[in-house]
Design a protein that fits this description.
Layout: H1 13-22, H2 35-42, H3 49-56, E1 61-66, H4 72-86, E2 91-95, H5 99-115, E3 129-131, E4 137-141, E5 156-159, H6 167-173, E6 183-188, H7 195-202, E7 209-213, H8 215-218, H9 223-233, H10 236-241, H11 255-261
Parallel strand pairs: 1-6, 1-7, 2-4, 2-5, 5-6
Antiparallel strand pairs: 3-4
Helix pairs in contact: 3-4, 4-5
The structure holds adenosine-5'-diphosphate and magnesium ion.
Magnesium ion binds at residues 72-73.
Length: 270
Amino acid sequence: MSLWSFFEPADDPADAVLGSLIRAPDPEPAISADPADLAHQLLSFPLDPVQLEILRSPAQYIALCCHRQWGKTQCSALKAVHLALRQPGAEIILVAPSLRQSGALLRAMFGFLNTLKINVKSDGLNRLSMLLPNGSRIVAIPNASDTVRGFSNVSLVIIDEAAYVRDETYRAVFPFLAASRGKLLLLSTPHGQHGFFYRAVHEPENNFVRYLVRASESGRLTPEFLAMARLELGDSYAQEFECSFTMGEEQIFDRSLIDQALDPIIQAFR
Ligand SMILES: Nc1ncnc2c1ncn2[C@@H]1O[C@H](COP(=O)(O)OP(=O)(O)O)[C@@H](O)[C@H]1O
Ligand SMILES: [Mg+2]
């Protein structure tokens, strides 16, 4: 009897029982390579073209500047869950201005996995973490450079509300991607003309694929709501809904004035 015939259906009922005991457990449900299929399964609304493009994008570095309530959380949670399911052992790190916010993103992912009936447990090391049966792990970390070291081989880092995350945290997190050539997804409304998110969106020479989604163009929010928001929010409206990087209170000169003043020919001053 060959080793393989041992696993084949047996005529003898006793062999059949033995076979069912040693057969591998049922595989996890197959996940389509196209994340749009997962979105279709999990969301009650169709994704818009930009959401779909970001979900499918193979780009290593993405910076998405968009208005409030556009769907950043839903879209990035889906992208992370798809990666976690498709790539066993994937390491995914979530960062936000506070642990409460990165935890909210983790909770959105937990909701999706729960709907898919995929059991998760804590990784036993991090308070806000999920370990999937295929060995993928998703960890929400705080906005603090001194306590977030120690991750490596990271497949994806998502930084939500990135304009409000400290530069020191970004500098602590970015090296997680070094060995794995992992991906980085920055999502935010604007906040001032400084910091890594401002630079990701504005510096022409970096490798970020950038998306700018303004409320007046996305069609997500009604014109009535936007008219009211304009009245109620005053100067903040442009920042919260129209992707405008307005000057911070601590800033004296608008960034464009500073940039114009720096003549690229005078290299010594760059
Ligand atoms: N393409 C879409 N069509 C309709 N509703 C959407 C779409 N994308 C997101 N939403 C809804 O918009 C709301 C805000 O989504 P969320 O991901 O929390 O936005 P954000 O993180 O940008 O503030 C949620 O109720 C979400 O279900
Ligand atoms: Mg959000």
